[in-house]
Specification:
The complex is a heterodimer. Chain A is about 30% helix and about 25% strand. The N and C termini of chain A lie far apart (about 65 Å). By secondary structure, chain A is of the alpha/beta class. In chain A, the strands form four sheets. In chain A, strands 7-11-6-1-4-5-12 form a seven-stranded parallel beta sheet, sandwiched between helices. Chain A contains eight helices and 18 strands. By secondary structure, chain B is α/β, with parallel strands linked by helices. Chain B folds into two domains: about 220 residues, 3-Layer(aba) Sandwich (Rossmann fold); about 45 residues. In chain B, the strands form three sheets. Chain B has a nine-stranded mixed beta sheet with strand order 11-10-9-12-8-1-6-7-13, sandwiched between helices. In chain B, helix 2 links the parallel strand 6 and strand 7. The radius of gyration of chain B is 25 Å and the shape is globular. Chains A and B meet through helix 3, helix 4, strand 7, strand 9 and strand 10 of A and strand 2, helix 3, helix 4, strand 9 and strand 10 of B. The complex binds flavin-adenine dinucleotide (2 copies). One flavin-adenine dinucleotide (FAD) binds next to helix 6, helix 7, strand 17 and helix 8 of chain A.
Chain lengths: ~375, ~280
């Protein structure tokens, strides 16, 4: 069925009795994703959210680390503690050295069935979505995709997961009442990174995978790492200068690059600009592009359509330059300049340049 | 070889409007299209058919109008089309949807075993990317998601090698048929419908299956009953509490505006000056 939100019956604030079998499910879990020796930042972003949920429920927060035996997995457990976990479930096996759906699905499913968490969170990455869909189906439970907000409905202690629908024009809150665990995925950079506390520690519970290589049908022949050299890295940039259709012509975009250069910033863009070929696809910010959370986001000639907004409203400070004082971007920017980007941008570039120069002198 | 391609009919999101008062989707007049991501799956199936010979069956679950999506697929070159349609499916979430589709594929198998099931990466309406993994799990098919390229297919050994988009790189995976592949967007380009296929599509006697025909006996597994997730609230995004502070100076010279902006900003966010300094260095 092509469900629409209007077809789905809203549950409203219903009271309900949790199946007694499910009352045993306690605790919040975060799956710690790692690739090539590094944990994915989304796992720590989720750990921060998981901490809040666990505190609201008054239950422990656990990290789930699966991988090949070695120092690395222990290090990820330690990191999980630093980011807020009280304990970690660790599954070590050489068969888990690369991500493969079959052993990871079995391993995570076994862990859930054994230790019974009430909430299980994963990153909405290619790995997380692959694994979450398989695990939820095996466990026959509900999975809410790409959430932008996680909360606890205290009335029935259930996870209220909010996600955008129809390109972000509406939000919907989804609950999974009489099933456990309640599962959700969240995209990278949607949640902020929690503070690291290196004094925190926790306990590690080990659990075996219990498979042999011949049980696993799929083999990894090769892993070809992306060549990141020269590729824009918007999701982790601290400063981003973005331009929209209001820049009018591709050569005007040079003004965006000039400001970015002075600030050491990345250059971002709206979808029409990318579609016109002014900048490459990797620079698109928004619903169908990258989610970013810089400390400073400068938007020039951008109207602030909801599909752009959802990708950048997590920025600490937003400066918007637009000729139209009623442009929606002014509804959520921190500072607005109503004016022509073609004259404001060079002036702003110069002002930043001078400010940086005085700083240097002062230092 | 027998290939099943799952396609979903979706509203054209570019034309969706939200009712300003009731916050419901206004579907009237919004054209329904084949989920754009599914066309990459269909094209890849058709390429395998061209290269190795195959029967391509397209499968869609949806209201009776979704027949248009299936005819479109026939016009591109699919051989058979099945529409699974029943009021009992209303309100299905991804768990219930994958149950219904897996049942239908098992029914399709009775005619001829299925070697590969294709699905899109995700849809543009529900946008969960969960149905593909769900079907694979229920049918015990090897799951290959985010496939950018089929590098090799050996029908004698029943082996397939694919390139899978992973975080930070590409995994080259080898597995056995039967498998389920979700195709990455941009991995191919949909062909044009030929005149002959367009005629065929118009006349094609589309199969419509209700839940019984799709082999579904347990009605607690479909529709609202079979759906663990419940939409509890739909609402418009909160406008941010504070509107932007508009920088306005008497002179309105770009230079003054910029200097005033920086002064205000660095007073309110003293750390930002530091951050920018570090970043620019
Ligand atoms: C399914 C879907 C997904 C989408 N995904 C994305 C996405 O990921 N990212 C994205 O950005 N968009 C996305 N969009 C498109 C989005 O809806 C908007 O169309 C887009 O963000 C608008 O881009 P813009 O602000 O550059 O252009 P416009 O909306 O045309 O705005 C241009 C602005 O520039 C201002 N302006 C004009 N002249 C000047 C000047 N001289 N100086 C200063 N300002 C000036 C105008 O007042 C106007 O506000 C998506 C749309 C759909 C339907
Ligand atoms: C706004 C909104 C939010 C939702 N959120 C959730 C949620 O978080 N969790 C949840 O479980 N359900 C959710 N649903 C319900 C879900 O959209 C439906 O179950 C839907 O039938 C399938 O999910 P999808 O559109 O996300 O498909 P996806 O999983 O994104 O689709 C992947 C592929 O599966 C195939 N496929 C999917 N549906 C069909 C079909 N009907 N017929 C044939 N092939 C198909 C296609 O090849 C498609 O490309 C939501 C629905 C809406 C409208």
């Amino acid at each position: 069925m092509s469900e629409t939100t209007e077809q789905k019956k809203p549950a409203g604030r219903r009271k309900f009795e949790l199946d007694p079998r499910l009352e045993k499910y306690k605790g919040v879990w975060v799956f710690v994703e790692h690739e090539r020796g590094a944990a994915h930042s989304v796992s720590w972003e989720l750990m921060g959210e998981g901490r809040k949920l666990a505190d609201k429920l008054g239950v422990p927060l656990a990290g789930v680390v699966m991988g090949a035996p070695g120092l690395q997995t222990r290090r990820f457990c330690q990191e999980a503690f630093h980011y807020g976990a009280d304990l970690c479930y660790l599954m070590e096996d050489p068969l888990l050295s690369d991500y493969r759906n079959q052993p990871f699905t079995k391993g995570l499913t076994d862990l859930v069935n054994t230790y019974q968490p009430e909430i299980l969170l994963l990153g909405a990455t290619t790995l997380g979505r692959d694994l979450a869909g398989s695990v939820a189906t095996t466990l026959q439970t509900g999975l809410t995709a790409d959430c932008t907000e996680l909360n606890i409905d205290m009335e029935n202690r259930s996870l209220a997961a909010t996600r955008p629908t129809f390109g972000g024009s509406l939000l919907c809150t989804i609950v999974t009442l009489n099933y456990r665990p309640q599962m959700a995925t969240v995209r990278p950079r949607v949640m902020s990174m929690p503070k690291k506390d290196e004094t925190r520690n926790g306990t590690i519970t080990e659990h075996p995978l219990g498979m042999i290589e011949t049980d696993i049908v799929t083999k990894v022949l090769e892993y070809i790492p992306d060549n990141l050299a020269g590729k824009p890295q918007l999701p982790f940039a601290d400063i981003i200068v973005s331009g929209g259709r209001g820049m009018k012509r591709p050569d005007n975009f040079q003004l965006i690059w000039d400001l970015a250069k002075v600030l050491g910033a990345e250059v971002g863009a709206t979808r029409p600009v990318v579609q016109a070929g002014w900048v490459e696809l990797d620079r698109q910010v928004g619903q169908s592009g990258k989610t970013v959370r810089p400390k400073l986001y400068i938007a020039a000639g951008i109207s602030g359509a909801i599909q752009h907004r959802v990708g950048m409203e997590g920025s600490d400070v937003i400066i918007a330059i637009n000729t139209d004082e009623n442009a929606p971007i002014f509804d959520f920017a921190t500072y607005g300049i109503v004016g022509n980007a073609m004259t404001i941008l060079p002036a702003l570039t110069e002002a930043f340049r001078q400010q940086l120069a005085t700083r240097k002198v002062a230092v | 070889m027998h290939i099943v391609v799952c396609i979903k009919q979706v509203p054209d999101s570019a034309q969706i409007r939200v009712h300003p008062v009731t916050n419901t989707i206004m579907r009237q007049g919004v054209p329904a299209i084949v989920n754009p991501y599914d066309l990459f799956a269909l094209e890849e199936a058709l390429r395998l058919k061209d290269k190795y010979g195959a029967r391509v069956t397209v499968l869609c679950m949806g209201p009776p109008q979704a027949e248009a999506a299936l005819r479109k697929a026939i016009s591109f070159g699919a051989d058979d089309a099945i529409l699974v349609t029943d009021r009992a499916f209303a309100g299905s979430d991804t768990l219930a949807t994958s149950f219904a589709l897996a049942s239908a594929i098992r029914k399709i198998q009775e005619d001829m075993p299925v070697d590969i099931v294709f699905a899109g990466k995700q849809t543009i309406d529900g946008d969960t990317a969960q149905v593909g993994p769900g079907i694979a799990k229920r049918m015990d098919l090897q799951l290959l998601t985010y496939v950018a390229k089929i590098a090799d297919l050996d029908l004698n050994k029943r082996e397939i090698v694919i390139h899978r988009r992973a975080e930070g790189g590409v995994q080259v995976l080898k597995t056995k048929l039967p498998c389920l592949i979700t195709m990455l967007e941009g991995s191919n380009e949909m062909r044009f419908a030929t005149m002959a296929n367009m005629f065929r599509a118009a006349r094609y006697p589309l199969k419509q299956w209700d839940k019984d025909a799709a082999g579904i006996e347990d009605v607690t597994k479909i529709g609202l009953k079979g759906s663990p997730t419940i939409v509890s609230k739909v609402f418009a995004p909160q406008p941010k509490s504070q509107r932007a502070e508009i920088i306005d100076c008497e002179s309105r010279e770009p230079k003054d505006l910029s200097v005033t902006l920086l002064a205000k900003m660095f007073t309110r966010y003293p750390n930002l000056a530091e951050e920018i300094g570090k970043n620019a260095a």
